[in-house]
Structure formats: C-alpha cells, structure tokens
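pasting for the record
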Amino acid sequence: MRKPDPLPNPFDRVAESLGNVVELQHMNVRVPDQIAATNFYISGLGLTRDPYLMTGTDNMWANVGISQFHLPAGAPQVVRGTTALVLPDRAALLHRLSRQRKGLDGSCFSFRETEDAVEATCPWGNRIRIHAPDAERFGRITLGMPYVEFDVPPGSTPGIARFYREFLRTPATAEGGVARALVANGQYLVFRETDAALPEFDGHHIQITLADFGGPHARLAEAGLISEESSPWQYRFLDIVDPESGAALFRVEHEVRSMTHPLYARPLINRNALVSNANYMPGHEAWAAAMPPE
C-alpha cells in the first residue's frame, strides 16, 4: 500500500516546542522591611499583592501576570543580575516611582529611563528592568516577567546552556557570551558574561516547574547536585555545572516543582494600576495580562 503524501504544513512546529520546563513562577528575595517593599513593588511598580496567600507581615507575594515576587522578611538578598518585567504605560510607571522617593529616601532605591526600558533599583539593590508590552519581543503579554538575567563569569555560558539542555531537557543556546534557556512559554533565564567581580551567593532563588519531574531529578542526584528533598512535589538544587567537565559554573538556587504540585498554574489576580480613587470607574479594577484577540 502506497504511503500517503504528507499534508502541506505552513507552520514551524519546532518553534512551538517548550521543552521540559513549563513554568517560571517566582523570584524569591528576602527583604528586611515589608513597608518599604510595599512602597516599591506595589505602590511604585504597580504590582498586586496576592490577596489569598502570605497576607501577614512576615512575607508578601507580589503578582506580575502569571509570575510572582516572593518577599519574605529577613536579611536582604540581592540577585546577581536583573529581573525583567513587562508593564503597561511608561508615563504612569514613572509617576508612581517618583512618588516613592520620599518614603524610600536613604535606601538604594533609584530609577532612570533608557531608550527601551525603565531601569529601577529596589531599596536593597535588586535591579529591575521594565519594558513596555511588545508582541514581537515578548509575545502578547501586557504584564509579566519575560526573563531573569544573571551576571556570570567569562567563558561560562556554553557550559550553562549544556546544563539546561542535558540536565533539565529544555532548549538553551549560547552565543556571544550570552546563554538563554527557555523556562516557560515566552519566558527565559538569561546568563550574560561579565568581567566584573561577582558577590558571594546569598541564598535567593527562582522557582520553575517541570513536565518530566523525575528524569532531571535522577540526573541531578547522580551528579550530587540535589540540595533539598522538600516534598513529594518539590526539590531544590544550587549549582549549575558543565555536563562535560563537571565544573561548577554558577550558583543560584532552583526550587523545582512538578505539575502535580498544588500551586501549579494557580490563577493570579492582577489589578489595573492605572485606576485610583481619583479616576475610578466600575469594572476596570482588574488588568488582563495578555493583549486582546486580534
């Protein structure tokens, strides 16, 4: 029997492959002052405090699209790199940030405009790069965390890309001193080589979710990289190593969850930060994190 001719295919099917990592859910840094954190992340950036979980004064979860910042109270932690956000309306963002100058005076808080972003620094030194929505660069999100960029030692990015491909089974590339690992639809971990001296790792972490939860665990465990067996749905590792040499390349804690984790893909509430008591109109309090249908 003659094999049928394949159907015409006008689509790039590989472009829609996510790999094994399916969620970049949160960036976790400790903050010593929950009021200052509220001034920066909620009042300044315009994010939304999660109304359901961590509602006390010892931790705050700040929603940004489908991702979050986790901000537990404690000695400050500073990411060795930059967390990128997509937020609507640059003028409104600059106005909100300018209103925080008095309350955050004497801290590391600052912000400035660049050609394609607003560069802000939190009261304890964390760098936040805020982009406007751009479908060509970031997909159809209007509010989100498109990438987290880490500063890494010279020569480390080829091995970092191999680590994410071979240990976590997710697409990753390295070119020109920059490695990029796909960790969710339209979200990346970026590693950029720098000659600057890097501070010691202070314990901050990112959280990712895997479709194949057990396969990477077995590979990480064999390499002696598992740092915590947290629960049936979660484990952690610290070091990114070169699969070829075993050399440690960079340290950032990864909180790794399964798709069976009770919090996987939990719907998050996002407010419309453009609405205030001065311009309020019913029905406009919530913000859609994606662009409307074309």
